[in-house]
Write a structure and sequence with these properties.
20 helices, alpha/beta, 8-stranded parallel sheet
Length: 544
């Protein structure tokens, strides 16, 4: 029998086809379940990955996940909800959670665990059972374009401690974590969505730093681990981690002893599929030891058929062992069935997510100093304690906070993981336009500056000036704009809501996050010269 005939047999053999289908996790376009996807779920498709574009409201989201489970009760329903800058539940409004960098700076694992539990409860109520979080990359490179504030910090011990706390918190709500991005994406200077990053570290170096958090989350019971599309030439000179048996089977399974589900990062990313295409990347990922293949964001029936055909051909050609496919499918099904029985899924939606702002997980007390949209004063205060505030910034706020100043918003192109979700105080403005802090902020004249704008545009801002951006030091146009303002205007205060450079040259205030919660915290900080009574000079996190 020819290879093509064997492949055809694989696709017509119901059991084998269901095993192939069980390893696939596509995305789709729309807010309702397409019939082609429902049919594939009925035929054993492993699950569905949801993105911001798939979510319009809490009732709609719950109806969507109910439809997925109706088609396949054993489906994985996954989402990329990191509880900070990367959010899908709050893609239209910005997240009400602080994000990892702030949690790491606060140094309170109990608080980290409670935040993760709240995220998990929201996800469980929405019908989601697998979260692509926590991000346990060590942000050892401050110029990293894709990790940054998604990381708990630059110390292996801090990332390990908070990664384990997040794992315990989220999984206590009946939602599995997929800790990422193995074996570590923090020491990269390029984005694997767009190219293949190279990390030239030895196995010994990885053991001392990058692998420390993965050992911790595995010990904490992580149900899944997500791979990274990075090349580690000292471990595998040809294939990125997602496609490398040496890294997945040798290091993750063999050395670290992980027995759960290995999930690939999205295979439509350049770092995985690049010149080889998604179907071939899927074959190599399965052969390397991945169990569940995250395909991408806007997949189609034809794309999944091409992937299935490639896997069937690989089986026929002996490139993929049937036993490897069977193991992968079994792990995915075991995870899904365990999640279905681990905690009850609420029958009604109690989340306060709204169709427009998506609200937040908890109500606010009537006497809250920050106001509505589910963000509590205690969370705002916690976020402020993580701010790094220079002495100059403290003086600026004392002079001008709550008063009149010009605002320059520097918009850089967000990485694909973050997407176009509203950020910082600008998301808070959209969610709560009438609160006193927002009203005071929006009363000031504002300039929006983006790459490609004429440099003179920033000079429309008159002294004093408040500049707000993200990762200011990484963008030449942002540095040039700030330098010019500092030279030609008086009393310029620069806020960096990303991961700042070590010298804080472009961060008089570093917030270490830009979620809606952090934006509200910044507005409260600027609008109240007492800093909500925290004591600006004495609070943890303030200073150099």
């Amino acid at each position: 029998m020819s290879g093509a005939s064997v492949a055809d047999t694989a696709l017509t053999d119901p059991q084998l086809r269901r095993s192939i289908a069980a390893t696939l996790l596509p995305g789709f376009v729309g807010t309702t379940l397409p019939e082609w996807l429902a049919q594939r779920l009925r035929e054993g498709l492993g699950g569905v990955c949801l993105f911001g574009q798939n979510i319009a409201s809490a009732p709609q989201l719950r109806a969507l996940t109910d439809a997925i489970y109706a088609a396949n009760p054993d489906a994985i329903v996954a989402i990329d909800e990191e509880g900070g800058d990367v959010t899908r539940l709050y893609y239209e409004s910005g997240s009400p959670y602080p994000g990892n960098a702030i949690l790491g700076r606060l140094g309170d694992p109990g608080y980290t665990e409670s935040v993760a539990r709240r995220v998990g409860e929201e996800l469980r109520g929405a019908g989601v059972n697998l979260d692509f979080a926590p991000d346990i990359d060590i942000n050892s490179n401050p110029d990293n374009p894709v990790i940054g504030v998604r990381s708990f910090g630059s110390s292996p011990e801090v990332v390990a401690e908070h990664g384990a706390a997040w794992t315990r918190g989220l999984q206590s709500a009946g939602v599995a974590v997929a800790a990422k991005h193995f074996p570590g994406h923090g020491d990269t200077g390029t984005d694997s969505h767009l190219e293949l990053p190279v990390v030239d570290l030895s196995a010994a170096q990885l053991r001392e730093r990058e692998l420390v958090p993965f050992r911790a989350v595995i010990a904490a019971g992580a149900r899944a681990v997500m791979t990274s599309h990075i090349l580690l030439p000292q471990l595998d000179a040809v294939l990125p981690a997602t496609l490398s048996p040496a890294i997945i089977e040798g290091m993750l399974r063999g050395e670290l002893g992980f027995e759960g589900v290995v999930v690939s990062d999205a295979l439509d990313m350049h770092g995985a599929s690049g010149d080889r295409g998604i179907p071939e990347a899927a074959v190599l990922a399965l052969a390397a030891g991945c169990d569940l293949l995250c395909i991408g964001t806007e997949n189609t029936d034809a794309e999944l058929a091409a992937i299935e055909a490639a896997i069937a051909a690989a089986l026929a050609a002996g490139r993929l062992a049937p036993s490897r496919l069977a193991t992968a499918a079994s792990r995915v099904r075991t995870l899904a069935r365990g999640l279905a029985s681990s905690a009850p899924v609420p029958a009604t939606v109690e989340s306060t997510i709204s169709a427009r702002s998506h609200g937040a997980a908890r109500a606010v007390s009537a006497d809250s100093t920050v106001g509505g949209s589910g963000i509590e004063a205690e969370d705002v205060a916690a976020a402020q304690r993580a701010f790094d505030v220079s002495a100059y910034a403290e003086e600026w706020v004392l002079r001008h906070g709550g008063g009149r100043y010009s605002v320059v918003r520097i918009d850089t192109v967000a990485n694909i993981a973050v997407g176009t979700a509203p950020w910082g105080p600008f998301s808070a403005i959209e969610a709560d336009p009438t609160t006193p802090a927002v009203a005071a902020f929006t009363a000031n004249p504002a300039v929006l500056f983006t790459e490609g704008d004429h440099p003179d545009l920033v000079l429309a801002a008159q002294s004093p000036v408040l500049v707000i951006g993200k990762d200011n030091h990484r963008h030449a146009f942002a540095r040039a704009a700030i330098d010019r303002l500092r030279a030609e205007r008086q009393e310029v205060l620069v806020v960096d809501m990303g991961w700042p450079s070590d010298d804080r040259a472009y961060a008089d205030i570093a917030t270490f996050g830009a979620s809606r919660l952090v934006g509200k915290a910044l507005l409260a900080f600027l609008g109240d010269r007492r800093g909500l009574g925290l004591g600006l000079a004495d609070g943890p996190g303030h200073g150099s």
